[in-house]
From TrEMBL:
Motif stretch (Histidine triad motif): 105-109
Residues at the catalytic site: H107 (tele-amp-histidine intermediate)
Name assigned to this protein: HIT family hydrolase
GO molecular function list: hydrolase activity
Any single GO BP term: nucleotide metabolic process
Residue span(s) of domain HIT: 12-121
InterPro entries reported for this sequence: HINT, Histidine_triad_HIT, HIT-like, HIT-like_sf
A Pfam family it matches: HIT
PROSITE patterns: HIT_2 (PS51084)
Keywords: Hydrolase
Length: 146
């Protein structure tokens, strides 16, 4: 799928928002939702989405929705830092399949990084699916820091 296209109501994040598939939530407000990535690039890797925008990518998103998402990204990054003490935090966002996008509901990745750890992001969404119990315990640690 390219930069142009129609919003798919059955994309995984639409299904999470509709309560049709589970997610391990970190943070939620009236406009945004943050949850742990099921194929994490690092411990604590999470995603932040708009609850109401049907933008597939940053080229389409309403300014208001983008501002709401980025305000939540900041909150999630700070809570993740307090919980996990990373040395850095990688904020990433992909637009179009050739750029690495695999889910077409705009989302921002919040990826804690530690000194000496991997830097690349090219193989994201291809790693092992994380253990659900481990992710749930990790989410408790981060949620305690909001
Ligand atoms: P993209 O490649 O579109 O930038 O990133 C999509 C991200 O969503 C990937 O990191 C992938 O692991 C994650 N992902 C895909 N499907 C699901 C899902 O059903 N639940 C959760 N929590 N993450 C998902």
């Amino acid at each position: 799928m390219s930069l142009d296209g129609v919003y798919d109501d059955n994309n995984p994040f639409a299904l999470i928002l509709a309560g049709k598939i589970p997610s391990i939530k970190l943070y939620e407000d009236a406009h945004t939702l943050a949850f742990l990535d099921i194929q994490p690039q690092s411990r604590g890797h999470s995603l932040v989405i708009s609850k109401w925008s049907r933008a597939r990518n940053i080229l389409e998103i309403e300014d208001e929705a983008l501002a709401q998402v980025m305000a939540s990204v900041k909150k999630v990054a700070n809570a993740t830092r307090r919980a996990l003490a990373p040395d850095g935090i990688h904020i990433a966002q992909f637009n179009g399949a050739p750029a690495g996008q695999t889910v077409f509901h705009l989302h921002v990745h919040v990826v804690p990084r530690w000194e000496g750890g991997p830097l690349g992001f090219s193989a994201h969404a291809q790693g092992n699916v994380a253990d659900a119990a481990a992710l749930t315990a990790l989410a408790d640690e981060i949620r305690a820091q909001f």
